[in-house]
């Protein structure tokens, strides 16, 4: 009985955390005197200072090819310096006739981690060439120093992409997905590519672009809508490891963008969990087209508090995103895998946080 009561208590705490995080959009709005969140580590002095990578260390910076064929996953990797020439000879790659996806990992991330491979597999099954950056050796320094390396890494990727265009890659067939620090690395790579060729990637998708150290930086030093013909952003932890700022042509604030509901009711999905959840949403959005549906918001503040259900304009998260409908979108999800709500999520009464808290106290008399 004691264990059961403890579980009930934990469930109540989780719901209160969720409700205070989002509010119900009708009864609560923050008072001016309590201020607004500055976000985790808004400034990091020195992150824009120069950085370099030695030729020996550069050998650890690799491009991983990921392809699904005949039900099996085939992978090869090359040092980024020699990768352009190697890829031309690689039978797993067809630069001239297929779309190409470049996946840029984030802080403490690797191309060999399961969720990175899941995204790569989803794209490969849809006919893309899939390339992944292996930057684990560089993005495992203490965080502000890892941030300092992002421009070096992004410029090197931009140089790599420029050489690929000389080998037959068409930029109109190039899409880049970056998570966390990888989103800003993608931005740097695109800026370098544009400066060198006058051309931009077709699309960049930022999965909860990193917020710490980036909040006060100018557009030239982080991912921005001008970096590609189409830029879409998935916000899942905007005051923690992510950014509240609108960065793309289409920005999805998932469940308000602050925190995500936990899969296990007694365990809340807090900062790291909510941040990484962006990758899982994106993976499932590719696997389940047009199932993750967002509704247009008038402001980021409205998205935080789910005050968008009075709008009729919607958009899809995933490969079907309609870029002719730019703006801010509130994207509702379910709390359990595979997370999508479809059209049911567009009903205000189904908003995940308040619907759960409402059901817990549905009885008029609570007797103990």
Automatic annotation (TrEMBL):
<dbReference type="InterPro" id="IPR000734">
    <property type="entry name" value="TAG_lipase"/>
</dbReference>
<dbReference type="Pfam" id="PF00151">
    <property type="entry name" value="Lipase"/>
</dbReference>
<dbReference type="InterPro" id="IPR029058">
    <property type="entry name" value="AB_hydrolase_fold"/>
</dbReference>
<feature type="signal peptide">
    <location>
        <begin position="1"/>
        <end position="25"/>
    </location>
</feature>
<keyword id="KW-0964">Secreted</keyword>
<protein>
    <recommendedName>
        <fullName>Lipase domain-containing protein</fullName>
    </recommendedName>
</protein>
<keyword id="KW-0732">Signal</keyword>
<dbReference type="GO" id="GO:0017171">
    <property type="term" value="F:serine hydrolase activity"/>
</dbReference>
<dbReference type="GO" id="GO:0016042">
    <property type="term" value="P:lipid catabolic process"/>
</dbReference>
<feature type="domain" description="Lipase">
    <location>
        <begin position="97"/>
        <end position="324"/>
    </location>
</feature>
<dbReference type="GO" id="GO:0016298">
    <property type="term" value="F:lipase activity"/>
</dbReference>
<dbReference type="GO" id="GO:0005615">
    <property type="term" value="C:extracellular space"/>
</dbReference>
<comment type="similarity">
    <text>Belongs to the AB hydrolase superfamily. Lipase family.</text>
</comment>
<dbReference type="InterPro" id="IPR013818">
    <property type="entry name" value="Lipase"/>
</dbReference>
């Amino acid at each position: 009985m004691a264990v059961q009561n403890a579980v009930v208590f934990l469930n109540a705490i989780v719901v209160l955390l969720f409700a205070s995080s989002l509010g119900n959009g009708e009864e609560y709005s923050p008072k001016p005197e309590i201020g607004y969140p500055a976000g985790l580590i808004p400034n990091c002095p020195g992150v824009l200072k120069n950085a370099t990578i030695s030729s020996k260390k550069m050998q650890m910076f690799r491009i991983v090819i990921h392809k699904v064929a005949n039900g099996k996953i085939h992978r090869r990797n090359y040092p980024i310096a020699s990768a352009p020439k190697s890829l031309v000879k690689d039978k797993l790659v067809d630069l001239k006739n297929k779309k190409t996806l470049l996946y840029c990992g984030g802080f403490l991330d690797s191309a060999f981690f399961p969720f990175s491979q899941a995204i790569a597999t989803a794209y490969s099954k849809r006919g893309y060439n899939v390339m992944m950056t292996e930057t684990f050796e560089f993005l495992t320094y203490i965080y502000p120093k890892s941030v300092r390396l992002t421009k070096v890494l992004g410029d090197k990727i931009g140089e790599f992409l420029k050489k690929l265009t000389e080998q037959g890659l068409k930029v109109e067939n190039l899409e880049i997905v970056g998570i966390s620090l990888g989103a800003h690395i993608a931005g740097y790579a695109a800026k370098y590519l544009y400066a060198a060729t006058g051309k931009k990637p077709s699309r960049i998708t930022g999965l909860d672009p990193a917020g710490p150290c980036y909040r006060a930086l100018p557009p030239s030093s982080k991912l921005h809508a001008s970096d590609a013909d189409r830029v879409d952003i998935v916000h899942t932890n905007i005051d923690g490891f992510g950014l509240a700022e609108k960065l793309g042509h289409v920005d999805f604030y998932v469940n308000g963008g602050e925190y995500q509901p936990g899969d296990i009711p007694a365990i809340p999905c807090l900062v790291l969990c909510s941040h990484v959840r962006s990758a899982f949403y994106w993976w499932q959005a590719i696997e389940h087209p047009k199932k993750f549906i967002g509704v247009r918001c008038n402001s980021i503040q409205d998205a935080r508090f789910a005050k968008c259900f009075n709008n009729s304009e919607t958009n899809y998260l995933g490969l079907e995103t309609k870029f002719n409908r730019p703006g801010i979108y509130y994207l509702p999800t379910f709390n359990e895998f595979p997370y999508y709500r479809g059209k049911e999520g567009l009903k205000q009464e189904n908003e995940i946080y308040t619907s759960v808290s409402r059901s817990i106290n549905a009885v008029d008399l609570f007797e103990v």
